[in-house]
Amino acid sequence: MNPAIASLLVAASLGVSSAAPTSPPKSTAAPTATGPAAVARNLDAVIDQALAEQRIVGTVVTVLRDGKVVYRRAAGFADREAKHPMREDSVFRLASMTKPLVSVAALALVEQGKLSLEDPITKWLPDFRPKLSDGREPVITVKHLLTHTSGLTYGFQPQNEAAHEKAGVSDGLDEVAGLTLEENLRRLATVPLSSEPGQRWNYSLSTDVLGAVVSRAAGAPLPEAVAKLVTRPLGLKDTSFRAGDASRLVAAYADGKPTPTRMGRTQDVPLWGGKVRFSPGRALSAEAYASGGAGMVGTAADYVKFLEALRKGGAPVLKKATVDKLGAVHVGPESQTQGPGWGWGLISAVLADAELAQGEQAQGTWQWGGAYGHNWFVDPRSGVTVVTLTNTAFEGMSGAFPGAVRDAVYAGLKP
């Protein structure tokens, strides 16, 4: 993703309507009982407004400070048409929130000596040899994949759409019958790299390739490797590459006027001159390949537990020395990965220049989201962890909603 588009992921507010909703159910949680009244009051107002304006269909928002829950609420509908209310244990398609989980699995293998950041990926994937536009075949390392400086791209980026479509490459959000990860990588390798590896940040299918590397280095299929290295040690019972309980999986919606539209079997959703192709049924398919960049499902509670483990030092999945590198800026703020002041670490965007970002988040904050409508951040200096999951793309990821949630949290936590 180029810097301009990455900046829009935070700043843009997609079209919304103020039409009256179909009375979404209120949360059964009692936010004021678990944390500061000001945080609860602020966040309740933000959530209620987004539901009333029909910008989102449903959401689960969780806020922790210093490891204690200060706010937790499920609101709106998990399935609007069936009138199923959102629940705190609702299961979401995580989309790019898969990336940190797979990246942490890779870092765990580095700690075990089974993988090195400097390994050329051909050590593990000898047939994956994409070339530059001039025909040269550069060396791509594991670190290039983690930092999205590999030169690989995504097909939903307008400048890459034609090449990816011609090659038949999946972005990991759609389901193509019979398409395996190995075949998708073979197709991806035919698309010219956008730049010399290590030269610049470009959001991409790097983590799908990393998933294949993790599988080879771990000697197990990616779902099994991630379970062994990350989800099982942390007790993330609802986080996997396939939803085990279809009744808890939320319906997927796309931004629309006067109300979000329910996604069909395959849905192209416009995004700044390009389109993102979704196949919501992928989350229930045993045939869909395990996309390391977009293929997992999970709950808000599981993801909070994952982020909190990292914030507290990484145990039992990573050592503190490795976690310290997550907040280090490996790609500078000139990349604007989440807008002015934001660079990239090893698993997410990192706030490199808080003054330039002009917000309340402290330097070193980690942040990212997911295309189905999610956003999260960890502010280690303030001890704040926020996970915002919705079932509405792209409002919950890059519309006004996640920024309003962030601002409400900091306003409520001020002395």
Report the C-alpha radius of gyration, rounded: 20 Å
Q: In percent terms, what proportion of residues is strand?
A: 15-25%
From N to C, what is the helix and strand string? HHHEEEEHHHHHHEEEEEHHEEHEEEEHH
* DSSP, total strands: 15
Largest beta-sheet details: 8 strands, antiparallel
Helical residue percent band: 25-40%
Poorly predicted tracts of residues: 1-35
Cα distance spanning the termini: 38 Å
Total number of helices: 14
As laid out across the biggest beta sheet, the strand order is 3-2-1-14-13-12-11-10
Structural class: alpha+beta
The gross shape turns out to be globular
Mean pLDDT: 92
Account of the 3D structure:
This protein has 415 residues and is of the alpha+beta class. Helices cover 31% and strands 16% of the residues. The strands form 4 sheets. It has an 8-stranded antiparallel β-sheet, with helices on both faces. A 3-stranded mixed β-sheet has the order 6-5-15. The chain has a two-stranded antiparallel sheet with strand order 4-9. It starts with a helix and ends with a helix. Residues 1-35 have low confidence and may be disordered.
Primary descriptors:
single chain, 415 residues, alpha+beta, 3-stranded mixed sheet, 14 helices, globular, disordered N terminus
Q: What are the SSEs and their pairings?
A:
Layout (H helix, E strand, L loop, with lengths): L2 H9 L19 H4 L2 H16 L5 E8 L2 E12 L4 E2 L6 E2 L4 H14 L30 H5 L14 H7 L13 H8 L17 H13 L3 H13 L18 E2 L6 E2 L4 E5 L2 E5 L18 E2 L1 H12 L8 H7 L15 E3 L4 E3 L2 H4 L8 E5 L3 E6 L4 E7 L1 E2 L1 H4 L1 H14 L2
Parallel strand pairs: 5-15
Antiparallel strand pairs: 1-2, 1-14, 2-3, 4-9, 5-6, 7-8, 10-11, 11-12, 12-13, 13-14
